[in-house]
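If you are new to this repository, start here. Below is one unmodified record pulled from the training split, so you can see the exact layout before writing a loader.
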Amino acid sequence: MILTICLSSTLQKTVTFDKVSLTHVNRSKSYRLDASGKAVNTARVLDMLEPGVSLSLCPLGSENAELFMDLAKRDGLAVKSVMIPGFTRECLTLLDSENHETTELVVGEPALDFDRNGAEGEFLDLLEEALTEGTDPSDNLNKGDRPLKTSCQAVVLAGSRPAMWSEDFQARISKKVVDSGVILLADFCGKDLLKTLEICTPQIIKINEEEFCSTFGYTFPVPEEKLRQLVIEKSVELGNILVLTRGTDETYAACKGEFYSCPVEKIVPVNTTACGDTFNAGFIYEYLKSADMAAALKKGTWCAARNAESEVPGTIK
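And here is the target side for that same chain:
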């Protein structure tokens, strides 16, 4: 079982147009609504690679939690949730079919007045249960009507931390996973990643080029040869795997100083939303199977390309 943790659960509305113009009325060709958020998208792809392999842990706003869980069940996703006041956030994706462009509009999330300590404690309890007991059924587990794996091999912690949560919450989540001996893939950046590195080191950090530079104090953009050297040096310093995605340029990675690169597939994009999340799914799934960095990068890249060819965010079919 691979556990995916998403602090920014999302109801993702994807609307397709022939062409999008900001100065005209735009009438859509199609519309869909999905349970989403970075780690939820990763979970959807993991279950396409191997049915029943994922479990998602995420907070849900009580006002529309039922809708989120219904959409998750439609896709066969197993979800454990912590209820908080208010609404699960909404994101709107606009697809321009003529220009092959994607625009994502993210609704801001106000800080909520709620029992943060209680909610964080409940969240960490659910995490410990998943790490130590697997996926035994419980009252708030949406099983998606399919069998579940029962032994946690890896955790993917991905996405931003909404302001409602403590500044060290992602660090505390990361430490609990690392201390358990389970592999952690961390896909977040900035102050949250630096706070995490003060108390523990994720076995895998996946980050894009601009986030890498802003987090570790490098001037963006960095010449390619220098960037390769920085990736190698940072992986040696941290003693872990560092994966650096670079949009349409080849992906760089290093495992304790051993450098790897992987070209990106050239495709005609339909929807680039969740390509990074889909990469995470392919990478961690293959890495757990083979411990082969080159194969894991290739699988992640393949998954990301298939996602970009589909209207549905977080999919390879």
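Two things worth knowing about this chain: Residues 61 and 87 are 4 Å apart (CA to CA). Residues 135-147 have pLDDT under 50 and may be disordered.
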